[in-house]
Amino acid sequence: MPESLPPLNALKAFEAAARLGSVTAAAQELSVTHGAVSRQIRALEAHLNTSLFERAGRGLVLTRHGRQLHTGVSEAFAGLRESCRALSREIEGAPFTLACPGSLLARWLIPRLDRLHRELPALRLNVMASDGAPDTRGGDISAALAFIAPPWPAEMEVIEIAAETIGAVAAPGIAARLAGRPAAALLKETILETTSRPQAWPQWAEATDMDGGQLKLARDAGQRFEHLYYLIEAALAGLGVAIAPRLVIEGDLKSGRLVAPWGFVDTDARLCLLLARGAPRQSGEALAAWLRHELMTPA
Question: Residue 70's domain is classified under what CATH number?
């Protein structure tokens, strides 16, 4: 087996034919003739001294060696495409698009966007709400900001920003009834939570040595909301006791609109910046550093 790399055009023809299952389709995609693709594949097989395709009717099927080669070649071409796109974005000054949970975006990031734009003018940041699981594989997202717990997703580079802290919070009227009492006192109140974070209350109960079984009964009789934003609005309206990340409700705590009778506890989750493959790392690190500094700076 030769140690030198085969010609790039041969690998390109092979990758297209393997992916499309047809020499004709590969030729159309590459804007060359059917014969040119066939010659490149034969040259690659001669270089590697093995067959890469077998005929299957009018199509092609990869041999065992062909499948092995295709795995590496397709990953390599994907990496090349991502690197070229990232370089083009940097050269052309393309925006850095950040996906962020709607509640975090509305309550924490938007009030700070003007300062972010002033302090990181080269970033050209665009933000969008994204309340599903963080996913940057679509190609339109440079990074996602989210609370996640290990293990980290393998398809994204994860930059940790801060630990997540959560607490039971309520409007002042309800909080006054709970002040100075043990955590079990909240069982007499309506429990509020989101469907996206069912683990939040159990984590808080474990950290405060509260009976998890009794809390589950109270949760079952409580009220659930699809999004954290609605959960916080319900707590502000005095509908019950909610469980929420401190970061998202910091402004409400300082204004006295919400009160945390028992303070806050750490979870195993972290606020993380998840970089897409091919996203400019320098821009991601600059944004992560700004976020950390902002979290440590009093509002």
Answer: 1.10.10.10
Q: Which range marks the domain in which residue 213 is found?
A: 95-299
Q: How many domains does the chain have?
A: 2
- The 8-class DSSP code of residue 243 comes to E
| CA angle, residues 285, 288, 291, in degrees to nearest 5 | 155
Q: Which residues contact 198 (CB under 8 A, 6 or more apart)?
A: none
| 148 and 248 belong to one structural domain | yes
- Exposed/middle/buried for 190, CB within 10 Å: 0-12, 13-18, 19+? middle
**118 and 265 belong to one structural domain:** yes
24-82 pLDDT, tens digit per residue, is: 888 898 899 999 989 999 999 899 999 998 887 777 889 999 899 998 888 888 878 77
Do 31 and 42 fall within a single domain? yes
Overall size of the chain counted in residues: 299
* Short-list 76, 49, 60, CA closest to 26: 60
Does the reported pTM lie above 0.85? Answer: no
Amino acid at 118: R
CA gap 216, 202 in Å, rounded: 8
